Automatic annotation (TrEMBL):
Keyword annotations of the record: Chromophore, FAD, Flavoprotein, Lyase
Residues holding FAD: 216, 228-232, 262, 265-272, 362-364
Lineage of origin: Bacteria, Bacillati, Actinomycetota, Actinomycetes, Propionibacteriales
Entry keyword Flavoprotein: yes
Single annotated GO MF: FAD binding
Protein's name according to its UniProt entry: Deoxyribodipyrimidine photo-lyase
Cofactor: FAD
Length: 457
C-alpha cells in the first residue's frame, strides 16, 4: 500500500479507543479529515452546530493541527483529497443510519476499487445488525435484545495508537466559528454546555461514576435534579465510545441497581440503532403499521405554541424553553412533551421529532425518532396507546418543589413550591403574563383515546 492512509472522521471525534484510527496508523502516515456536509448542517440549530465545531476544534488540536476540514459533498471532497495526497487507503468507522449508509456507498463508488476501503468498529459497543434471535431475525422488543446483546458482549477499549500525522495538505481549512461565540449570553451558554472534547467526556464519566451514579436509579427521573450522566452529547459526537463507558462500569464497585439501570440505558441506545439498521424506513415513518389509519390534525399555531413553550402547561413549557435555550431536555420531560404533542395536540410524531433533532445537542436519529415512536405508540415496546401523560401530575411528581419550572418560566417565578404547576389555582397565577392552557387536557385525552381505539379496529 502506498501513500498516506486517510482517516475519515464522522461520529467518532476522538483519538483514544478508536479502532479505525489504530488500523490506519499501523502501516502509514494518517491524514485525518472531516467533511462539513451542508445537507446535515442545514438541519442543525445553533447549539448542535456549536457542539460539532467545538469538537472539531479540539480534534484539530489533538492531531497537532493535522485535521483537514473541508465543506461540500463528501464524494467530491474526498475524491479530491485522495488524489491530492495520493492516499493508499481510506479508513472509517462503520455507519449504520440510512443516510450514512447511502452516503458511504456513494463515496466508495466514487473513489473506485483502486483505493482500499477499510471499515473498522462503529459508534456502538455491538455494531447494529449483529444481534439476531434464534431464527436469525432481528429483535423487536428491548428486554430480549438487551439479554442477547449482553451475552454477545464486546471487546475491551482499543487503547490509543502512536500516530504519524500526514502533513501533505498545505491548507487544512478553517473550522467555522461557533454560532455561540460573540454575545455574552451565548458565551455563557457555551460554558454551561462544556467542551465537546474527548477529555471532557472522560472527565464527565469519571465524575458521574464518582458521585452521580450512586443515586441514579432513584434520581434519574427527576427533572429538577442533575440525576443523569449527561453523556449523550459525547456519545452523539463520539468524543467517548460506549465501550469505554461499559468498561468503566464493569470496573465500578457501586450499587448493583444503579449500575444495572445505567447500563440498560446504554443498551437502549444500541437497541434503537439496531432497529433503525433493520428498518431504515422507521427513521421518518411509523415502524409498526397498526396505527396507519390514525387521523392526525394538521399542524397549526398550537405547534408553534408547543415549540415556543407557550402551551399554558408549566412543565411542558419549561422543558420546551430549556430545549431551545440550551439544546438539552431531561428524559422525563422529553416523554411528557412528546406525549403532549401526540396525544393532546393530535399531531403526527415527526412534527415534534424534527424540532427536537434541530435543537438537541445529543440529537440522534435512532434514539430520537424511536423515542418519539415509543410515545406515539407506533414504535417498538410502544407505550400502551391508552397511556396519556398528564402534564400536571407529571410535573408535580418529577419536579416536586417546582424548581425546574421556575427556572425556565420566569412568568411563574413568583409562585412558591408545587403551586407553580397549577397557576389557575393561585390568585396571582397569571399576574406576570403566563398564558392560559391552550387545550383542556381531560377533553383531549378522551379524544386521543377514541382516535386510538378507532384506528386499532
Ligand atoms: C422523545 C424522546 C426523544 C429522545 N431523543 C434523543 C436523542 O435525540 N438523542 C439521545 O441520545 N437520546 C434521546 N432520547 C433518550 C434520552 O432522553 C436521552 O438519551 C437522555 O435524556 C440523555 O441524557 P443522559 O446522557 O444524561 O442520559 P443517562 O440517563 O445518563 O443515560 C446514559 C446514556 O444512555 C442512553 N440513553 C438513555 N436513555 C435512553 C433512551 N430512552 N433511548 C436511547 N438511549 C438512551 C444515552 O446515550 C445516554 O447518554 C430521547 C427520548 C425521548 C423520549
Amino acid at each position: 500500500m502506498t501513500g498516506p492512509a486517510l482517516l475519515w472522521f464522522r461520529r467518532d471525534l476522538r483519538l483514544d479507543d478508536h479502532p479505525a484510527l489504530l488500523q490506519a496508523a499501523e502501516s502509514a502516515t494518517v491524514l485525518p479529515v472531516f467533511v462539513l456536509d451542508p445537507r446535515l448542517l442545514e438541519h442543525a440549530g445553533p447549539v448542535r452546530t456549536h457542539c460539532l465545531f467545538d469538537a472539531l476544534d479540539h480534534l484539530r488540536r489533538a492531531t497537532d493541527n493535522a485535521l483537514v476540514v473541508r465543506t461540500g459533498d463528501p464524494v467530491q471532497v474526498l475524491g479530491e483529497l485522495v488524489a491530492e495526497v495520493g492516499a493508499g487507503s481510506i479508513h472509517l468507522s462503520t455507519e449504520t443510519t440510512p443516510f450514512g449508509r447511502r452516503r458511504d456507498r456513494q463515496v466508495r463508488a466514487g473513489l473506485g476499487d483502486d483505493l482500499a476501503w477499510v471499515e473498522t468498529g462503529s459508534p456502538y459497543a455491538v455494531t447494529p445488525g449483529r444481534i439476531l434471535n434464534g431464527s436469525g431475525a432481528p429483535y423487536q422488543v428491548f428486554t430480549p435484545f438487551r439479554r442477547a446483546w449482553a451475552d454477545h458482549g464486546w471487546r475491551g477499549p482499543a487503547g490509543s495508537a502512536e500516530v504519524r500525522w500526514c502533513r501533505q495538505v498545505d491548507d487544512p481549512g478553517p473550522i467555522p466559528t461557533s454560532p455561540l461565540r460573540g454575545e455574552d449570553q451565548d458565551e455563557e451558554l457555551a460554558a454551561r454546555i462544556g467542551p465537546c472534547s474527548e477529555e471532557a467526556g472522560r472527565k464527565l464519566l469519571a465524575d458521574f461514576l464518582d458521585s452521580g451514579i450512586g443515586n441514579y436509579d432513584q434520581n434519574r427521573d427527576r427533572a429538577d435534579l442533575r440525576g443523569t450522566s449527561e453523556l449523550s452529547m459525547h456519545l452523539k459526537y463520539g468524543t467517548i465510545h460506549p465501550r469505554t463507558i461499559l468498561h468503566a462500569l464493569s470496573e465500578h464497585r457501586g450499587d448493583a441497581p444503579d449500575v444495572d439501570r445505567f447500563s440498560a440505558e446504554i443498551a437502549w441506545r444500541e437497541f434503537y440503532a439496531d432497529v433503525l439498521f433493520h428498518n431504515p424506513r422507521s427513521a421518518w415513518g411509523d415502524l409498526k403499521p397498526a396505527l396507519s389509519t390514525m387521523p392526525y390534525d394538521e399542524p397549526d399555531e398550537r405547534l408553534l405554541a408547543w415549540q415556543e413553550g407557550r402551551t399554558g402547561f408549566p412543565f411542558v413549557d419549561a422543558a420546551m424553553r430549556q430545549l431551545v435555550a440550551t439544546g438539552w431536555m431531561h428524559n422525563r420531560a422529553r416523554m411528557v412533551t412528546a406525549s403532549f404533542l401526540c396525544k393532546d395536540l393530535h399531531l403526527w410524531w415527526p412534527h415534534g421529532a424534527r424540532h427536537f433533532l434541530r435543537h438537541l445537542r445529543d440529537g440522534d436519529i435512532a434514539s430520537n425518532n424511536h423515542g418519539w415512536q415509543w410515545v406515539a405508540g407506533t414504535g417498538t415496546d410502544a407505550s400502551p396507546y391508552f397511556r396519556v401523560f398528564n402534564p400536571i401530575t407529571q410535573g408535580k411528581k418529577f419536579d416536586p418543589d417546582g424548581t425546574y419550572v421556575r427556572r425556565w418560566v420566569p412568568e411563574l417565578a413568583h409562585l412558591r413550591g408545587a403551586r407553580v404547576h397549577e397557576p389557575w389555582k393561585a390568585e396571582d397565577g397569571y399576574a406576570r403574563g403566563y398564558p392560559e392552557p391552550i387545550i383542556d387536557h381531560g377533553e383531549e385525552r378522551a379524544e386521543a383515546l377514541s382516535r386510538y381505539e378507532a384506528a386499532r379496529r
